[in-house]
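Regression test case RT-17, inverse folding.

Input:
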């Protein structure tokens, strides 16, 4: 669908339309959900696009109105984009007499929109506040071929890099700095076992599938694989975690030694080493069995973890907290992390996984970076209705974190960064893998790149571009496999190639 760019005096044929409104300085998944919803409400949808400031220096947006209009037009969702001379919606409503105006939920109660909404209602129109449908899975493969989707996402990635002024040479140069960095990874460690099976059929005794085990393989996960990724990318890394007195702990210890990771493991006889066993048939996971304890560390074990932290902190550039809410990252441990960060000027990077556990990423205060997914973001703020933009801004404010990366599963992620004046800028990056083999551990790979890059004093957006390529690699193999810098560089070159 071709999208027209219109001035107010050219919009005579758009009366009775569905009208949306905004500045759309950057376009991400939240905006697309919002626009798709508006598109579904009528035969014709128009976007009223906020104009630029009179003085170029006073313009609050990183891109001018023409550039923002062109980006909106590429989505192909709107029939027309109405170029407003300023931020007043009233002239558009008076001219178009829309049947309905759809506004983001963050604008509900806005004093600026009281007059336009009153005018709309006096003309017989209605207003709807909508954040866009919330979804955690992609349906694109139902309507597009895998080849076309992959090509489209590569184009989106290249455009994101162009917007941020990122070339292949600049990104590779950023990676070269990683070897000078040392990080501590703190958190819960897991051993994941994948069991490849052959499906035999249905049991005659009960309605269950019967399988025969063929081969099994163990992988390290959670904080341990974050450390393994960091080490494979060229940085030095120490792992601080708690394991049990069992054979699984021995396996984990052997693996981190093999990877060249510093051993900061503490033994706790009261809990087993967390172990998850997945049964797989033809690359499809049937079910998972977990062996774990979720109680907090007792005081003696907690003290050992803090002692190890204090020993390693003076030699590090930052601490990565990978919290699966299994009890390692206690309030006392987190307090020690904060104190050590202040004492040694360490950057802090946080990720909290709470798919089946109870936890909140909002407990991480004044971190350099937080990396929640959308579900974890909504749980932290107890808000299932608001739009992504409002929630992201709220989490930035509530936690006082410097940077934020919101993971959106099959829709990629959005990177938020503060500039020198404290203003927040954002950039969405697409998911480069269209039909992933195994998404478990993709977030761990993103956290590893983000922590390594930012701790190396490189900027947020080049680091996010590299993390986007890293995630695309991580989901292409079954199980958590550390990804080396050389492989990441090759994937980056392939992705940026026209």
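Golden output:
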């Amino acid at each position: 669908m071709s999208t027209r760019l219109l001035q107010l005096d050219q919009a005579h044929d758009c009366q009775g339309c569905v009208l949306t409104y905004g500045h759309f300085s950057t376009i991400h998944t939240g905006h697309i959900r919002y626009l798709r919803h508006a598109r579904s409400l009528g035969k014709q949808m128009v976007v009223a696009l906020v104009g630029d400031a009179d003085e170029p220096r006073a313009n609050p947006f990183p891109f001018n109105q023409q550039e923002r209009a062109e980006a909106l037009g590429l989505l192909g969702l709107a029939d027309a984009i109405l170029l407003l001379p300023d931020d007043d919606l009233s002239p558009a409503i008076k001219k178009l007499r829309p049947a309905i105006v759809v506004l983001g939920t963050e604008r509900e109660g806005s004093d600026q929109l009281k007059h336009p909404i009153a005018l709309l209602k006096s003309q017989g129109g209605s207003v709807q506040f909508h954040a866009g449908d919330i979804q955690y899975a992609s349906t694109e493969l139902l309507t597009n071929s895998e080849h076309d989707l992959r090509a489209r996402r590569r184009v989106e990635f290249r455009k994101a890099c162009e917007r941020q002024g990122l070339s292949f040479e600049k990104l590779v140069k950023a990676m070269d700095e990683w070897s000078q960095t040392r990080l501590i990874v703190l958190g819960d460690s897991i051993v994941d076992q994948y069991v490849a099976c052959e499906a035999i059929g249905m049991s005659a005794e009960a309605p269950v599938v019967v399988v025969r085990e063929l081969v099994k393989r163990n992988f390290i996960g959670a904080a341990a694989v974050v450390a393994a990724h960091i080490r494979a990318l060229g940085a030095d890394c120490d792992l601080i975690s708690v394991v049990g007195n069992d054979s699984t702990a021995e396996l984990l210890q052997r693996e981190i030694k093999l990877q060249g990771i510093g051993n900061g493991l503490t033994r706790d006889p009261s809990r087993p080493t967390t172990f998850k066993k997945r049964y797989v048939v033809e690359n499809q996971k049937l079910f998972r069995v977990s062996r774990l304890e979720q109680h907090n560390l007792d005081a003696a074990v907690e003290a050992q973890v803090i002692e190890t932290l204090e020993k390693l902190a003076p030699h590090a550039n930052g601490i990565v907290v990978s919290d699966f809410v299994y009890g390692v990252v206690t309030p006392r441990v987190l307090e020690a992390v904060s104190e050590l960060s202040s004492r040694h000027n360490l950057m802090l990077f946080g990720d909290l996984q709470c798919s089946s556990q109870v936890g909140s990423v909002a407990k991480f205060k004044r971190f350099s970076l937080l990396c929640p997914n959308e579900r974890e973001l909504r749980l932290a703020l107890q808000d299932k209705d608001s739009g992504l933009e409002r929630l992201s801004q709220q989490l930035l404010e509530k936690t006082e974190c410097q940077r934020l990366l919101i993971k959106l599963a099959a829709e990629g992620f959005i990177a938020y960064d503060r500039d020198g004046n404290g203003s927040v800028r954002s950039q969405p990056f697409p998911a480069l893998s269209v039909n992933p083999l195994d998404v478990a551990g993709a977030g761990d790979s993103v956290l590893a790149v983000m922590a390594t890059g930012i701790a190396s004093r490189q900027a947020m957006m080049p680091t996010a571009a590299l993390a986007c390529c890293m995630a695309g690699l991580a989901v292409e193999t079954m199980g958590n496999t550390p990804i080396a810098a050389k492989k990441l560089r090759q994937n980056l070159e392939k992705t940026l190639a026209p």
